[in-house]
Structures are given as structure tokens and as C-alpha cells.
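Could you help me review a protein record that somebody else here produced? What it holds is a sequence and that sequence's fold in C-alpha cell form. I have pasted the whole thing underneath without changing anything:
=====
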Amino acid sequence: MGTLGDELAIAMAELEEEKVLGLVQEGIAAGEDPLELVRSLQDGMTEVGARFESGDYFLNELVMSGEIMKEAMVEIEPLLHGAEQEYHGLVVIGTVKGDIHDLGKNIVVMLLKGAGYEVVDLGVDVPAERFVEAVKEHNARLVGMCALLTASQGSMKETIERVRSTGLDTKIVIGGSYMNETIRENVGADYFGTTANDAVKLAEEVFASA
């Protein structure tokens, strides 16, 4: 996205509400790809998360960043929905227990719905048993587990083990800005994603093989 995208990411990281909204509106008016605007906002949120974990930001800043993100997404969300989509399948998603971050999850939910998926959103701080209940209830082929904080990996691993114990053929994708192949292997997931768009691509892959 170039300069505007870089400015947007920095403004998001610095919690400059008016500047974020102004740049989003500027990008929309200029015909920028709405997904690129979302990616820039996500880059800024990644920095917010890093500052929170390092102690430079506190819970107030984390909450504030969430409010700014929600305001920005009000502008962008209508552009994420194209023509009416064919139904592709059902996805269960939630932020694992011990993590109250829902910004990335909410963007994933919007993109999945826009791509024609039914989404069962379990919310944040979701205990393992709630994931298990939802997987059984909906016979879910794909489960998304989100986390912002690195300390949530233990909870994620436990939740995945519980979902595996159902014996259902359920694929699990973990999402968060710091996810990588090592973490995926450690917690026992099938896939990992670092952006909301990754989740849509992985959903297409999983349901294409149905």
C-alpha cells in the first residue's frame, strides 16, 4: 500500500484515533484495496500487542486500541462484502481461555462471512470445554483459535488436545501475529495464520477437500 499503509500502521500503533480514521477514509476515497487497509491496521495492532507484552502499554491502551480498530472497521466492513456468496461451510472460532483479545478474531469473522461461510463465534476467554461443545454440536470441520498473548500457548495446546479427544475429523487453525510453524507443531494444530486473510485461504483449502 505504500506510504498511506505505513502511516496507517504507525498511527494505529501510536493510538492516534483521529489520524487512523482520517487515513482509512482517505484510503477508501482513493480506491485502495480494503484488505490492504485491514492489513495495515493489523500491522499496527501487532505493534500494540508487542508493546503490551513488553510493559510499554497497559490494559487501558489495549482497550483503547480495540475501540479505534472497531471504529476503523465500521468504515471498511461494507467494502469487504461483494456479491452474495455461495454457502461454503461452517467454521467455529474463538479466542482461547486467558486471552481477552478479539480484534483479529472479529476481522476473521467478517472476512469469512463475506466469503460465504457460516461462523459460530464463541467470543473471548473461551474454555476448552466450550470449544468441544461447539465442535460436537455443529460437527465442525474447521475450528479457529486466536490469541494475541504468547502466554496463551498453554491454553491453546490444552484446548486442541480436548478437541482432538472428540475423535471428529476437525481441522484446527491457530491465528495470531506471532504464530509460526514451531508454535503450530508445539500446540498440535493443523495450520497457522498470521493475518485474517490467511484464515479465509485456509478455509477454502479445508472445505475444498471435503
Observations:
- The chain has two domains: 3-80, 89-208.
- The chain has a mean pLDDT of 89.
- The chain has nine helices and five strands.
